[in-house]
Every structure is written in structure tokens, then in C-alpha cells.
Amino acid sequence: MKKLFKHREILLVVIIAIMIAGFATRAQGFAAPGNLANIFNDTSILIILALGQMTVILTKSIDLSVAANLAFTGMAVAMTDAAYPGLPLVLLVVMAIGIGAFLGAINGYLVWALQIPSIVVTLGTLTIYRGMAFVLSGGAWVNAHQMTPTFLNIPRMPLLGLPMLSWIAVAIVIGGWFVMNRLPFGRATYASGGNPTAAVYAGIDVGRTLFFAFVLSGALAGLCGYLWVSRYAVAYVDVAIGFELDTVAACVIGGISIAGGIGSVAGAVLGALFLGVIKNALPVIGISPFAQMAISGIVIILAVVFNARAERRVGRIILRNRAAVEVQA
Amino acid sequence: MNGAMQTHNRPPHPAPLEDPAPILEMRGISQIFPGVKALDTVDIKLFPGEVTALIGENGAGKSTLVKILTGIYRPNEGEILIDGQAVSFANAQAAIDAGVTAIHQETVLFDDLTVGENIFLGHAPRTRFGMIDWREINNRSLGLLQALESEIDPTIRLRDLSIAQRHLVAIARALSVEARIVIMDEPTAALSRKEIDDLFRIIEGLKRQGKAILFISHKFDEVYEIAENFVVFRDGRAVGHGKLPETPQQDIVRLMVGRDVKDVFPKVKVEIGAPVLRVEGFTHPTEFRDIFFELRRGEILGVYGLIGAGRSELCQALFGVTRASAGRLVLEDTPISIGSSGDAIRAGIVYVPEERGRHGLALPMPIFQNMSLPSLSRTSRGGFLKAANELALARKYAERLDLRAAALSVPVGTLSGGNQQKVVIGKWLATKPKVIILDEPTKGIDIGSKAAVHGFIGELASEGLSIIMVSSELPEILGMSDRVMVMREGLAAGMFDREQLSAETLVRAATGNA
């Protein structure tokens, strides 16, 4: 049992299960499959963004501009959809991903070529991208009636009992796992964050790895731009304001080390689900929104403390993966 | 140990017929680190108004001694006496309070504070109300700097000073406390000849004030110029001491190097083959210039020199971590250009860095991923990582190097130092290199492991690898190398064949003492 808890992902699953069970005693039907599916769907966008954020954090950086990127991209695609209702949705999605990736590339370029710390770069671009959303829209809203039905409906379309939005998140989680574990780029992110100097000595281009981590984070933020405006059926400048902190929090709770080099896709997903469960449960059991923020904050700090202790005590155990099984077999 | 002592009893120069009482005496000091005895029952005496030179190779225990005297380490055995009274330093402040001050090799100063703040940081004079007395700081700083014959304004920021001026600030800082014992750890390393002359005038002044000075330097000419006494350290022991002008340099070198080293390293006889790597006119903008050498198959080329001679920098440029500004590399008759470490690895040149923790391993990553990191292009299929291949590769080298680990999937950070070392070496061997550059391969490991590493290096050479071995340890260089290139101040100061090798020749070439 103790050994089981060493695996942070399993521990998180257990904690989330206990939380759901606990909330179910206070709010009837909280643990019903339908409600759980809702929570997952609610958390989908956070999961996708947390995966992008994780890639960046693994390289010892941080991307604070994801929510602003999301707002700008969301505004751009919503306005395009309103202005040219005939455009196929695929094109809009590609456009969202492209714009997001481009904004991410700006972050990545500044961090790579100019060697500016990522927290400074993305703090700057956070305001710039948000400002760009304002300039683009002139502060106006794009409302549901201006958007085409396809634009609004695809993410809600149920498939095998779950909305498309959830399936997109699932697909991206699988894709993220593949990138991090099966592509040299994934390995390069772990190495660049785990020990940048050693990575350079091993022939890895750390700067380029960082750049692509930001591009990936930006592309996912762009995709989420579309998903967000479609889901909430409205685009305005302040969409998802402050949401970048949720993505960082999800990573931290999921055991991704802010110092870089440690973390897993499963951790990021579970961290996001953890936050999703809390956010959905607190209103249901009648806790005021102000207390909710405080509770979220306390949970994040506890997670950080726990992380720090875990890393100190048993060395760094979080990276064990499938290969561990293979070796012992 | 007393047997090795040299007792030249000339009449001490000022006047008294007997040696004056020492200000500071260390008796039987031992410092033990896990696996290493850094200092072994060392005795030292420092006398008022005299300079004692501490001489020894890198790793002989000089820095450990400095750290004990400045209260950073507490010795496991032995006692320190000041004016005949036993003292023990609980921390750095206690050492300062007892009158010991040090000018460190790498000066610890703050770029963005003013000169005065730097000098009085931590012991700033206060006004009656407990506030920092800026006027007093600046006045006293000015006084200290003027005593050092310097015109530096105490109110300007350190950032705006030259290296030599910073050094003066460091000296002023050391003298800003009431110190009777001044330790200078390689104070001349960054100074020009003129600045050294200035420094020596300052030291003469300190002598006249009756301070006892411990002067650590590699440079024999300086030692002979300024010091009255010397102590030689080797492998953590004080192997000899005496008076200076009358002890010939050869005797000191012999004490430094000690045993006849060729017996300790039974060199594996290897057939030296065709040239593998030719380096022509290799030049770096600041670190080294005009390096020529040729490396043959199965050959071990030793690179010897003092710290700062440009050895590691040369190797880093060969490996593409830094860029050379001029010169040509020819690998097996093909000119190659190396712009990044990736290029070097592909060409078959690898570098095992000196600081293995910092440069060698990503500690959170599993053993097998660390090992496969430079070889990913070979273990992947169609651009996808293949964990099975990576594990097979890691297993092969783990067996070969006798790596002890619970599983190859545990993070490298959980391994012992020796095993981490094996991971680093395995990782580079796995790239199937032609040339392997080893930077201080046995630094910081104990004698037993050293022998194993040396055996292994010989084995690699006999398999046809060409090896460049940078080392500051003369016995290692003398015992292992087929040829030795000595570097001094960024230049190749000599190339010696195995038959010509002797400790004296190498030390002379490295220090520039004819």
C-alpha cells in the first residue's frame, strides 16, 4: 500500500475518488455517471491547456500567456465565423490552432533567441494578446446568434454518451502521451528541464526544444480558443481571464515540478480533474464563491508542499513509467 | 611524517635567535569526507611578520585547509591554537572574530553594491541609533583602499571596476576586520605582473604590521619572491616544510609529486595505430590559441596544466559546446566542422565532463534514458523512441561497467556517486565514439575507484579508442599518457613523449619556470 502511494498518479486517483465519494454524501447524485461525465466535459479545456503548460514547465519555463492566447484566438475565429458563415469548420479549427501556434512561437522565439526568462516574456505577451483581442473586436462581443450552428454544435455533439469536447480532450491526452513518451522531442523536454547543461552535452538543442514547447502550448491554447467560445457561445475580451493560473495549478497538483524535468501526462490530467471536481463540487454543497477560491488556493499550496517533500524523501520517483514494468518483467 | 620534514635552521632574518612563537598553530588536523580523507594529521605553524607558502597539486588539500581556518569546515581531529590557546571555530564569524581573514580564490563580491558596501557587508559600522553609518563606511573604505595604494572611490558600484581593482576590494574587505592571520588563496591568478608587484608591496606592509600570512600559489617564482617558509601538501598530508630561499626548487617539486609514479600505473601496452584526429591551429577568442596536435588510434594523450590554462575550454570547443574562432579539425582524413555537441557526437567525438553532476546527467531521469540520450537516433525507429532498444543498450553498458542499481528505470539521482559516474561513461561509450575526451576522470573519487577508472581507460585504449585525458594530477598524467601536451595560459607549452616525461619537466612547462 505504501509503495502504491509512492506513485503520485495513483495517489491522486485515490484522492479524487475519495473526494467524489465525500461530496456524494452531501449532494445526491454527485457520483452519478452522468454528473461525472459532466465534470469531465467541464474540465476538458483545462486538461488540454494543462498538457501544453506541462510541456513548457518540464523545460523549466512557464507560459502565462495561454489564457490570453485563448481569448485572442477565440475572438478571431468567432469573428471570422460571424463574418463568413460559409467557411467550413475544419478551416476555422485549423486557423485557431495556427494562430495559437504562432502566438506561442512568439513566446518561444523571445525565450530562445533573446534569452529572456519565460515568466517575463509571457507576462508581457499575456497583456499584449489580451490587448490584441480588444483591438480586434473593438471591445464588442460576438454572441451566440452571430455564430453558425455548426460552429456552436460540433463540440456538444454526443458520441457514445460523451460530447465531442470530451472526446477531443481524450484524443489530445493520448496524443500528448505519445509525444512525451515516444517522440525524441518529448525526451528532449525532460532532459532540457532535468539538466540543461547535460542536455546540451548530449547533443540536444535546448533552445529549440524550448521553442517547440511554447509552440505546442500555443497551438493547444489556440484550439481551446475555439472550444471555449463554442462551448460558452460567446466571445469577448475577458474570456478565460486568469485561467493561466488554473493550468499552472493543475500541473503543480499533478506533480509536475516547477524546477523542470519531472512530470507526466497522467499527472497533468489528474491535476486538472482534481481542480475540476473541486470547482464543480463546492457550489453544489453550498460553499460561497469566495471560500471556493481560498480552498482552491490552499489545495494548491498543499500540493506544492507535498511535492517538495516527496521529491526530497525518495529522490525523484515520479518519472517511473511503463519501462519500469518492462525491466522487472 | 616527520621523516619527510626538512629542517633548515638558518638564523631567522629580522633578529631573534630562535623562531618566534607562532601566532597560529594547527596540530594533527584531519578532515574526513565520505570516502576521502581530505586532510590527514596536518601540522602547520604561521609566524608573525612572515609569509608561509602553501604548495601542492590540485586536490592536495589546500582548499580544505583554508576552509577549516575560515570556520567553514570543522576538522574531525586535531586542534587549532592561536597564541597558544586552543580555539574552535563554530562558523565563519567565529574565525573572523579570532582574527583570521581570507582572500579567496574566487572573490565573493557583489556586482551591484558599492565598493564600500562590499567591504563592510556583514560588519557595517552603526550609528548610535543602530542605523548603518554610511559616512563611516565610506571613510574607512577610503582609508583601507588608500593603504593599498589605490584610488578607488568607495561609493561607485563594483560592476564598474576592473578585475584587478575588484581584487583590491577583496583584499580591502579581508583587511577591514581586525585580522592577524591573512590567508591568500591564489591571489595572483587574475593579476598582471605590475599588479602582482603592487600586491607584494601590500604583503610587505602586512608583514611589517606583524601579521602572519598563508600564501597559496602554484607559481614558484612568486613563492620564492615573497615567502619565508613553505609547506608542501600531497594527498592531504603535509609532506615537508622548511625555509624558502635556501630550499632548491627541485626539492619542492619532488615533495609535491612524491613517489615514482610509473610503478603505480602499470600502463597497458597498446599498439598505436594510424592518426585519428588532427587539430590544426585551433583558436578560441579568449581561452586558447594555436593548438596543434595529432591523436592516433589507441593513444592516450594527456593534457596537463594549471587551472585556467584553457584545457577544459579546448576540450569543450573540440566537442562543440563552445565555438573555436579559427583552426581546422581533421577526423580520419576528412575535415570536419563542429558547430554543436550534436555534430561532435555524430562525428564520433565525445566528452566526459569534469563536473559530472552538473554537466553529465539529468538526475530526475531514469538510468536507461540518461544512457540513451546521446544515442537516441540509433535506438529510435522511424522517428519514434523505442524503449526496448534503449533498455537493451543501457543493459549492455550497465553490465560492462558493473553498474549497481535496483533497476535501469530508477532515476539516476538515487544512485551513489561512483555509479552515477558509470552511467556517464556508459552513456558516452554507447555512442560508439572514435575519440573520447575525459576531463579530470578521477577527480573527487577515492584511491580504490581511481585504480578501477585507470584500468578501464587502459582497456578503452586497447580496444582502439583514442583518448584525450585532461588531468591536474601529475601521477595520473605521468602514469597513463602516451604523450602529454602541457598548456599554459591558453597556449600549448610543450608536447612530450612518454620517454621524456618527468614531473619536473611538466611542472616547469606548466608554470613557465625555466
UniProtKB/TrEMBL annotation, chain A:
The entry's keywords: Cell membrane, Membrane, Transmembrane, Transmembrane helix
Topology of the protein relative to the lipid bilayer: Multi-pass membrane protein
Main location: membrane
A GO molecular-function annotation: transmembrane transporter activity
Species: Neorhizobium lilium
KW Membrane (keyword) present: yes
Transmembrane segments: 39-59, 90-112, 119-142, 162-180, 210-229, 250-278, 290-310
InterPro entries listed in its UniProt record: ABC_transp_permease
Full protein name: ABC transporter permease
Location(s) in or outside the cell: Cell membrane
GO CC, any one term: plasma membrane
CDD domains assigned to the protein according to its UniProt record, in alphabetical order: TM_PBP1_transp_AraH_like (cd06579)
